[in-house]
Write a structure and sequence with these properties.
The structure holds 2 protein chains of 2 kinds. Chain A has one domain. The longest helix of chain A has 45 residues. Chain A is globular. Chain A contains 20 helices and 3 strands. In chain A, strands 2-3 form a two-stranded antiparallel sheet. Chain A is mostly helical. The longest helix of chain B has 15 residues. Chain B is of the alpha/beta class. Chain B is globular. Chain B contains 10 helices and 8 strands. Chain B folds into 2 domains: 188 residues, P-loop containing nucleotide triphosphate hydrolases (Rossmann fold); 55 residues, no CATH class. Chain B has a 7-stranded mixed beta sheet, with helices on both faces. Classes of the chains: A mainly alpha, B alpha/beta. At the A-B interface, α1, α2, α3, β1 and α6 of A face β3, α2, α3, β7 and α5 of B. β1 of chain A pairs antiparallel with β7 of chain B, so a sheet runs across the interface.
Chain lengths: 502, 272
């Protein structure tokens, strides 16, 4: 470390956290005879002190703490706050009330997000996609920019980025602060407390509930958070299963697909509720899979018993609303959005290229889609979706924009680029029309939601997993496990769906 | 702030709330610090809140134990001295070997902070003093920041701060970091300890185990001879007797004797 190097201490996955070298890779240097003498004496003296001296030292520390505290603290009467906190805990961690309360909290948070994000999402798309995009395109065209550069920058780079911003920002602006408020309030440790028994039965560490909750924000952050788990075996299980926590890159995908397809199956008044229930179902399936895979791992590759630990239930604290809102905006929303934009821009260029570079008379994308189509069909998806997932390996956030741009290309519904902007004019209905034209059915939507839950982690998460485990083998496992489960889930769902539908 | 305040003193006023007048938050601007200050404490006692108050950074705080996993660093300047503040992961003790405890322990031991501020939860003093006492065995230059005083009051607890300071042998500053209470006093105390104006005599444990005191005395003398100027020879002796691998390694590599914070921090290897 150089003097004066500022270290980034901000953001959920700052380098300060990710760049920690693995312990044990230090070189032991030869030491001086004096030091050797000290170490030799230490070895010799170790035989002369009682073997349990360490425990007795610890006892001495505890005893001293108790004495000092007793001397200097006076408790006066019963505080109403303590009574209130105890009642709160009895409800939120109660045997019969704990789980329903947890699910209700998540459901309400999702519902508020879905209902609340619709309007600003459409408004932003109206400005960024419907108005600015054609203006930029024609403006740059008039300035004499060659068509290919114009297409690359405006249709590829700009449009994808605009899409990501308008699709992701509104739900994030609502969901993240709610999550942070719950965290500030002190709810997360109660969730861990409730889930502890389940995780223990799965042979995993109870704190995995905390790392899973972090994963709901960002899997890379969740994987880093696994450091709070002491046992290496349980830590690995937590790292390998963190991907089953829907991350912020996937919440918008889930919410969008659920709104467009599931929401439209019921009466308009109930659309928001139906969509929220569908997303909730996928999120809970993620929890179940996380438990199931932990269970399987602790009986095969990572055999062992769950270790005991103590978890402090902190006092409930009234969250400071505005401050939390502000911190959540700066630390999470903008950080995550910036990352999405960072990945979306080059992906937009990539999409434009595969759509416009032709091989033997057809665009590159055509060949790739045709090649992936059989596999896509088996999984209830399509070649377009699979290709989108390949393009979106750097970041989950850009899956939906990739799918849409590729669908526009394949269906030929409109001229590429010019037409892409039309998607938003009538909101979700046109979106649905476009996807239906691309061969989508409700089955495709359900399979996509499942696949979005179960596929390889994004490249940032994979890199973090490699950093944290220091092993290629585990990094590969962490990608293969969800992919295999995703394939089975999707193919199974598609087969059953087709069989029932005849 | 009154209107008679000179412009130079107002740089700290940018953030709303009661800000100590001579505090200048430097955020990530950490060049050429004069002193290194470490923030230690049990999980969920408000270390990150104290950190944010002093540096002006917005390290995310959360109401759950284990929020800060790695070290976070920031800077502030107080009365013309520049400080580097290091927020350590919250730990219940420094004696076990989990990753977060090692990060905290290694920094206090090898990072040689000029001041170690132990943030303790005033509502759970007994449990929190365990860590404070352990830190006191390692370093003299400790301040106890008695945080969450607002909650202690709400719980009907009265704490004898002066008695506590007498028992621990180090300064005790009552604070309510969320309300920015007590920050000025904390800064003043950090300055006094960092500049050596205040030499504390922290409570040292006696280790009342047969044969142990003698073993510690012999080994500590040898450690002092091998590493001249080492600050906490008895504690190192105790760890060697317990077979602490990282202390052994540090000793073998000569990291314990180094005064330069540069080389010492290299042994921790977290934020770089």
């Amino acid at each position: 470390m150089k003097t004066g190097t500022p270290s980034p201490g901000l953001g959920p996955v700052s380098d300060a956290e990710a760049d920690r070298p693995n312990p044990g890779d230090r070189v032991i240097l030869g030491s001086s005879p004096r030091i050797e003498a000290v170490l030799g004496l230490a070895e010799e003296l170790r035989w002369r002190v009682p073997p349990e001296f360490h425990d007795r030292c610890v006892e001495e520390i505890y005893g001293e703490s108790a004495r000092i505290a007793a001397r200097n603290v006076v408790r006066s009467g019963v505080s109403s706050r303590q009574t209130w906190q105890r009642r709160m805990d009895a409800f939120l961690t109660g045997r019969w009330t704990g789980f329903p309360a947890m699910i209700a909290v998540l459901a309400v948070a999702l519902w508020i997000t879905i209902v609340g994000a619709n309007v600003p999402s459409a408004a932003m798309a109206g400005v960024l996609v419907d108005t600015l995009h054609p203006a930029l395109k024609s403006g740059l065209g008039q300035l004499g920019m060659p068509w290919w550069l114009n297409g690359l920058l405006v249709d590829g780079l700009y449009l994808t980025t605009a899409w990501v911003v308008s699709v992701m920002l509104p739900p994030m602006l609502i969901f993240f602060p709610m999550f942070t408020l719950l965290e500030d309030f002190g709810y997360l440790p109660r969730v861990a407390f409730n889930l502890d028994r389940l995780f223990q039965r799965a042979g995993a560490h109870g704190k995995q509930a905390l790392t899973m909750s972090m994963g709901w924000g960002c899997n890379a952050a969740g994987v880093t958070a696994c450091r709070i788990i002491d046992s290496p075996r349980e830590r690995l299980i937590a790292i390998l299963t963190n991907n089953f926590a829907l991350c912020n890159g996937r919440w918008p995908t889930q919410i969008l697909i659920a709104t467009v397809f599931v929401g439209s199956l019921v009466a308009p008044a109930l659309a928001g509720v139906a969509a929220a229930v569908a997303v909730l179902g996928v999120a809970l399936l993620g929890v179940v899979l996380s438990l199931g895979v932990s269970w399987a791992l602790s009986r095969t590759l990572l055999r062992g018993e769950a270790s005991a630990f103590s978890l402090e239930l902190p006092p409930y604290r009234p969250p400071r609303f505005w401050r939390t809102l502000y911190t959540s905006l700066i630390d999470r929303t903008l950080f995550v959005l910036w990352r999405a934009v960072l990945f979306a821009a080059p992906a937009g260029v990539a999409i434009w290229c595969v759509a416009n570079i032709t091989v033997t008379g057809r665009p590159l994308a055509f060949w790739a889609i045709a090649g992936l189509e059989p596999l896509g069909w088996v999984m209830g998806l399509s070649g377009v979706i699979l290709l989108a997932y390949v393009i979106a390996i750097p970041a989950n956030e850009i899956v939906v924009p990739s799918i849409l741009m590729l669908t526009v290309l394949v269906t030929g519904m409109t001229e590429l680029g010019q037409g892409a902007g039309v998607m938003f004019e009538a909101g979700d209905n046109v979106l649905k029309k476009l996807l239906v034209a691309g061969g989508w059915t409700p089955m495709t939507a359900v399979c996509l939601m499942l696949f979005s839950l179960c596929h390889n982690p994004c490249s940032t998460t994979l890199y973090t997993i490699y950093k944290e485990t220091g092993s290629w083998r585990w990094t590969v496992w962490s990608a293969l496990i969800p992919m295999a489960i995703g394939f089975v889930l999707c193919a199974g769902t598609a087969a059953v769906w087709r069989w029932i539908a005849g | 702030m009154s209107s008679g305040c000179p412009p130079s003193a107002c740089s700290g006023c940018a953030v709303p709330g009661r800000s100590p007048a001579s505090l200048q938050r430097l955020g990530l601007g950490l060049e050429n610090w004069d002193h290194v200050v470490a923030l230690a404490g049990n999980p969920n006692t408000g270390k990150s809140t104290v950190f944010n108050n002093l540096t002006g950074l917005r390290q995310h705080t959360g109401n759950w134990p284990g929020k800060t996993i790695a070290r976070a660093e920031g800077g502030f300047s107080y009365r013309d001295r520049r400080y580097k503040l290091v927020d350590l992961p919250g730990t219940y003790s420094l004696l076990s070997s989990s990753l977060d405890e090692e990060v905290a322990r290694d920094f206090i031991l090898f990072g040689k902070p000029d001041v170690t501020v132990v943030v303790v939860d005033a509502t759970a003093l007994e449990r929190n003093l365990n860590l404070a006492l352990q830190v006191l065995q390692i370093t003299d230059r400790t301040i106890v920041c008695l945080n969450l005083m607002d909650e202690a009051r709400a719980h009907g607890l009265r704490i004898d701060t002066r008695g506590l300071a007498r028992d621990l042998g180090v300064p005790v500053i009552p604070t309510a970091a969320r309300q920015r209470e007590g920050m000025e006093e904390l800064l003043g105390e950090i300055e006094r300890v960092a500049t050596g104006q205040l030499a504390a005599r922290p409570r040292r444990l006696t280790y009342d185990v047969p044969g142990l005191r003698d073993a510690i005395r012999r080994l500590a003398a040898e450690v002092e001879a091998a590493v001249p100027g080492v600050a906490n020879a008895p504690w190192i002796a105790l760890r060697l007797l317990h077979g602490d691998e990282s202390v052994r390694r540090a000793l073998a590599r000569g990291e314990l004797g180094l005064v330069s914070e540069d080389a010492a921090v290299g042994g921790v290897g977290a934020a770089a």
